[in-house]
Amino acid sequence: MKQSLRNFKDSYFFYSFKRDKIAVVSFAILLVLMIVSFSAPLLAPYNPYDSETIDILNSELPPAWMDGGSSTFLLGTDQQGRDLLSTMMYGMRLSVLIGLGAVVLQAFLGITVGLFAGYLGGRLDNFLMRMADIQLSFATMMVAILISAIFQTVFGESRYNDLAVPLLVVIIGIAEWPQYARTVRASVLGEKGKEYVEAARVVGLSRMRIMFRHILPNTMSSVLVISTVQVANAIMSEAALSFLGLGMPVNRPSLGSLINAGFEYIFSGVWWITLFPGLFLVVLVLVINLLGDWLRDVLNPKLYKG
């Protein structure tokens, strides 16, 4: 363990990270946001899911520093009387979980398709890549909205609300898998002609073993870079779907549903319900994208400028 830690500290990866101030600051902010969101049951002043702690008479209270505000509710309350700070902490946790779950599904589908298409080639490659091209020809949000609307029609709105989290993971995952498939396929095409793959064939290893045990690990650097960007995209997709009323319901707040819930009140002066969740969302997506840019430069020496 100590040796592994010492090797990590001496690695080029950690050296590059320490030298990049933007990456260090972005990682620190992201770490704080993750701790705050996943520790919401411990850190949040109130539980937005507990109706006993919610009083409708406290609805639409402004932030504590404004006239009419209360020190009890630092960032004010929403239209249901929930403490906005607590609701955002719980909501950010839901948004991040949906984003991570969607990226895991995207990666599983895309990596599998990309491996088979790139290694086996031929008609299978043509078929799988044409499927990816067809899906890429549609905007991601159009695909997500279509699938979400179909699920709501099939399950009904109340049932959809109960299954909102896993359904959003599936919806966003299905909409974004071609990004992984095309990238992995390109990497596989570059790897399958190399000596170690030829040696694996000569000793009689199966195609599945060659693909998943030998070729796949050599494509993971590109997959890792895509994943950081896709987490941010998935969080934004969830927020957009929730804003359109096709995502998380109001009683199960995410950052997107909070923005949607407060949007109709923003011109009446109750701006904080939309503004603060929007700022949280912008900061979260920004730091993830900045870390993704740094990771891309480090893992691709041709792009790294030192």
UniProtKB/TrEMBL annotation:
Where does it reside? Cell membrane
Q: Which SUPFAM superfamilies match?
A: MetI-like (SSF161098)
List the record's Gene Ontology CC terms alphabetically: plasma membrane
Describe the location of the ABC transmembrane type-1 domain by residue ranges.
Answer: 92-292
Q: Which residues cross the membrane?
A: 21-44, 94-120, 132-151, 215-236, 270-292
**Membrane topology note:** Multi-pass membrane protein
Arranged from A to Z, the UniProt key words for this protein are: Cell membrane, Membrane, Transmembrane, Transmembrane helix, Transport
Keyword Cell membrane assigned to the entry: answer is: yes
- Asked if Glycoprotein is a keyword of the record, the answer is no
Q: Please indicate which superkingdom the organism of origin belongs to.
A: Bacteria
Q: Which GO terms describe its biological process?
A: transmembrane transport
Q: PANTHER family in the record, alphabetically? A: ABC TRANSPORTER PERMEASE PROTEIN (PTHR43386:SF26), OLIGOPEPTIDE TRANSPORT SYSTEM PERMEASE PROTEIN APPC (PTHR43386)
What is the similarity comment for this entry?
A: Belongs to the binding-protein-dependent transport system permease family.
State the protein's name. Answer: Peptide/nickel transport system permease protein
Q: Which organism is it from?
A: Desulfoluna spongiiphila
